[in-house]
C-alpha cells in the first residue's frame, strides 16, 4: 500500500475538484482576504450587539 501513488484526486470529492478548477468569466470573484475581513466584521457586530441588548 505504501508503494502506490495517489492520482491527485480524492474519491470522496464527487467531482467538486473538477468543477472548482474550471474558470467562469461571468462568475463573481471574491478574494479569500475579503471573505475573512467580512466574517470578522460580522463577528464583531454580533458581539457588540450581544453586549448592548
UniProtKB/TrEMBL annotation:
Component of the protein translocase complex. Heterotrimer consisting of alpha (SecY), beta (SecG) and gamma (SecE) subunits. Can form oligomers of the heterotrimer. InterPro entries: Preprot_translocase_SecG (IPR023531), SecG/Sec61-beta/Sbh (IPR016482). HAMAP family: SecG (MF_00751). Keywords: Cell membrane, Membrane, Protein transport, Translocation, Transmembrane, Transmembrane helix, Transport. It comes from Methanomicrobium antiquum. It holds the Pfam family Sec61_beta. This is Preprotein translocase subunit SecG. It is a single-pass membrane protein. Residues 1-31 are cytoplasmic. It is found in: Cell membrane. Involved in protein export. The function of the beta subunit is unknown, but it may be involved in stabilization of the trimeric complex. Belongs to the SEC61-beta family. GO terms for cellular component: plasma membrane. The chain crosses the membrane at residues 35-52. GO terms for biological process: protein transport. Its main location: membrane.
Amino acid at each position: 500500500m505504501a508503494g502506490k501513488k495517489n492520482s491527485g484526486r480524492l474519491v470522496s470529492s464527487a467531482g467538486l475538484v473538477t468543477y472548482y478548477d474550471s474558470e467562469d468569466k461571468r462568475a463573481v470573484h471574491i478574494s479569500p482576504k475579503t471573505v475573512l475581513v467580512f466574517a470578522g466584521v460580522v463577528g464583531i457586530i454580533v458581539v457588540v450587539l450581544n453586549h448592548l441588548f
